Structure formats: C-alpha cells, structure tokens
Amino acid sequence: MKNFLQSVLMVLTLVSTITVTSQVPVLNSNSSAQAVVFLDFDGHTVNGTSWNISGPIFCGASGLDNSQITTVFNRVAEDYRPFNVNITTDSTKYLAAPVNKRMRVIMTITYQWYGSAGGVAFVGSFIWGDNTPCFIFTSLLNYNVKNISEAASHEAGHTLGLYHQSTYDANCVKVSDYNYGQGSGEIGWAPIMGVGYYQNMTLWNNGPNSFGCTNYQSDLSVLTTLNGFSYRTDDHAATFANATAVSFSGNQFTVNGIVEQNTDQDMIRITQPSSGRFQLDAVPYNVGTGNAGSNLDLQVTLFNSSQTQLNSYNPGTLLSSVIDTLLDPGTYYLRIEGKGNVYAPNYASLGSYALTGTFTANNPLPLRRLELSGELNGDRHNLSWIIDADEQVTQQILEISTDGRNFSPVVTLSTIERSYNYRPAITATAQYRLNVTFDNGKQYYSNIVTLRNTANSLRPYVISNLINSSTIAITSPGIYSYSIYDLNGKTIAGGQLSNGLNTITANGITGGIYLIKFASGNGQWTDKVIRQ
Q: Which of 521, 315, 498 is nearest to 401 (CA)?
C-alpha cells in the first residue's frame, strides 16, 4: 500500500497580495540529467492520480512573481546540486524524462481541497511512474520564498523516499516529529527533512527518523540508491598530480566547482609569477547576504610546491573563507572541501562554490609595520595601531565588518591619530581593519581584529572543552537548562544548572565532538565539548 505522509511544516495567515506571472522563467540546474524535479508555478489540473479520490483537482498558480520564482528555484537547485538530477521550471524537461524518474512539485495557492498544511507528498512516489505530484501551498506559507523553498525541497525529499528527521530525548522518547536544528546566524543549521524555516544552513542529514530513536535515516544514501540517480561526476580531482591548473589573467582568476560528496576534495593549482600579495575569496553559492541559502561550509587549505601545508582557512562563524597572505613566486595548491561546524555535522556540507583569486606584485615598500589591536571595555570598543613607514600617511579609515568579507567605514581619522574608542551600534561580533593610504599613492590594509561583545552575554560556560571522562564542569550565573547532543542531533543527557560551579555527568559519551545547549528565558547558547 502506498504510504501517505502529510508534511505539516508551517501554516501562516495570508497577508500578501497574490501576483500572477504571465510566463515562468525557464531554468535548469542540470539539464543533461535524466532524472527531473519539475517546479510547477503556473497552475495545473491533477487527474487520474492517487490524490484524485473526489475527482480532478484544479490548482491555481503560485502567486509568485518571476523574481520570487527564480529565488525559489535557486534555493531548491542548491539543495539538490550534489546529485545527478535536474531541478527545472521547464515542463518539456519533465515530459521528456522517464516516467519513473520524475516528479512534479506543484506550487499553488489552492489548498482547500486538502486542508491547512505547508505541503503534502506521497513517500517514494518519484519512481511510481504515474505522474502523481506533490504540492506546496504557497498562500499558507504567506508567499515567503524562504519557507516555500524549504517546503519544496522537503516535499520532493518525501517523494524520493525520505521520512522526517526527528528528535528524541535521552530515554528515546520522541520530542518532536521534526528536527528543528540548532544554532543561529550564518551557520545556524537544521535538516531539510526537519524544519528549515528558522535556520540559514539547511542540509540533508543522517539521524533518527520518525519511526524510532535508533532508526537512523541516511538521507544521502536514500536519495542516491532508490531513485535511479546518484551523485554528479566530480568536477575537480582530489590529488596534487591531477589538480586543476588555473592561470592569472590581469592578475586575477576565477574557479567554480561543486563539492558533490562529503569525501570530495577539489584541488586547484596556481602559479604566482613573482613575490606579492595573494588574496582569495572562497564563497559558497548563495541567494543573498550572509550566504543565505548556502549548503556548503567551505574550508580552503593552502599548500606550497612541495605539497607542504602552509595554512588552513575556515572562519568558525562564516560559511565562506578568505586568504590574504604574502607569497614568493612559484606553484601553490588550494584544497577546497566542505566541513561541519559547531552546529552542523560534516555529513552533508555539500554544494557549489566560487573562487576569486587576486595577485598584487610587491613594489618597494614604504611600509614596515601596520598592526591593529583591539579590546573590549564594557560596551565600548578600543582600537589602537602602529604604523612604521618611510612615507607620510595621507588618509586612514577604520573599517568594520560583521561577516568577515564586506567592510564599511566606521570613521575617517586624522593622519596623526593612532587610536579610536567608541560604542558601536551593533551587538554582533565585529571585525575591524585599518585602511591606510600614503603620499606615494600606495594603499594598505592592516590585520583584522575580532571583538566579540560579552557584556550582555551572561550565560553558562563549559570550564574546559576537552574532557577525558563523562563528567563536564560548567560555571553558571543562575538557573539554566542544559541538553547534550551528538552531531547527529541525538540527545545524550539533559537537566538543570544552579548558580555557581556545576558538575554534570553524561553517561555513554565516547570519543568525539558533542554539543551542549544552555537555555533560559533570555536566550540559548551552544558550546562544543570534545571527549578525548
């Protein structure tokens, strides 16, 4: 008997005006793939399928304009980027695909025939071969493109054989049929087959599904073994010998790639023509600021011509990576891979990325030292710096960033100032650099200084993140709840902290990384614990 699964992800009140598009843009993520997931935005009549208990279902259009449709497509396409499947808005691609390798995902304002739900699907229906679609109810999702995209990937996942990723407590009692994930900000994570509305980074997962705490569902295995398609062909080799060679053109190069599997490493070979500054921006595919819609937490490792590692770059709170260093002339290698972080497991940090490399040749330097330092004093940020140069400073600008990539001016200072103190308007972590110009026209940036606001972060802390037993020492400023999870989201232990020093026991933890979440009415915080 076909398994019917309602996926009630979110039901919201309609507040937006419906916009009807005259023609949906034609978009394909992998046009040569046989397997097809068709995002149908312009309305459809469903007849002769397992849904048609009471006759035909007349589905209105999505109510989205072409810009919104494109964003939804891009988000869903990135979720399925590692696989040899075409996400498309082109009905001809759907009709040309094998009948047992295709799915129509109907984006529609019409929900009354079914009821209040974000979407609905039959599990495994992708391979049925009878044109049974799944549905996303756009009006009940308030025409929110983020939520519609999450629902579309989720419901398509059901048709591909996936059940919900669920959460359980330490006693194996189901807490929720949906795993809501954890964390916040750019690296806040949730499973696609859980609830992804509230987190930026939503991924496939290997965790307990809705049928029991020991019934682990490896989403990647199900997707690539039950539906007639597997992963895309690797686009960049993983070895030094076969690394993709790229050349500077106008002192710059660009590379695009995909991390298809969690074992994938893309090797890139570059040749720097002379001594100088090498800068690299490694950015995962995204649909907006803060790497919105990204599925890949990038790590870049730099090697010299002897294949000796020089450095590894992976900012802890960002999904992108930046290199800014001085190199001698010669051959260098870049290794690109997906990694987990304090919130997201390494299991499915997959997707596409773009690299932009820039080379600036060294000229006789007027600058011997440009060093920025900073410290917190309550809610004020104190910055000071040293400039040691032969030339005269003609301009100096203190710049700030909250994402590590995009800097904007804080203040333009007089040429003689060497410190600045102020109270920032932001409460997030701030990164500073000094932009200095000399009278010979040369411009330089200082090192980057990170200041994390802690004045308003009264919360528990783990005394030591490295432990060699099941005992964890925590200092707490008051009464807080705590929960300990493994990287698959399974709850190991939980309880309540009192004011002062607490010693808690998490029986059953073995070697590896665990997350401990603290919560109170003022917020939630997560620390990492490594069991040696």
A: 315
Per-residue pLDDT at 227: 97
Residue 213 has pLDDT above 90, yes or no: yes
Phi-psi region of 69 (alpha: psi -120 to 50; beta: other; left: phi over 0): alpha
DSSP state of 219: H
Do the beta carbons of residue 463 and residue 502 sit within 8 Å?
Answer: no
* Percent of the chain with pLDDT strictly greater than 90: 64
E runs forming strands in 250-379: 252-259, 266-272, 276-284, 298-303, 309-313, 321-327, 330-338, 351-361, 367-377
124 Ramachandran zone, left/alpha/beta (phi>0; psi -120 to 50): left
How does pLDDT run across 7-41, given as a tens digit for each residue?
333 332 222 333 344 589 999 999 999 999 999 99
For 89, the token pair is 């808005």
- Residue 140: what are its φ and ψ, rounded to 5°? -70, -15
Residue 73 host element (H or E): helix 66-79
365: which DSSP letter? -
Give the list of residues 6+ apart from residue 217 with CB closer than 8 angstroms, or none.
162, 163, 165, 193, 205, 206, 207, 208, 209
pTM of the full structure: 0.70
> What is the rounded CA–CA span in Å between residue 296 and residue 258?
9
**99 neighbors 72 (Cβ within 8 angstroms):** no
CB atoms within 10 A of CB 38: 24
Distance CA 252, CA 431 (A): 26
Cβ-count burial 250-274 (b if 16+ within 10 Å, e if not): eeebebebbbbbbebbbbbbbebee
| Structure-token pair, residue 470 | 């099941």
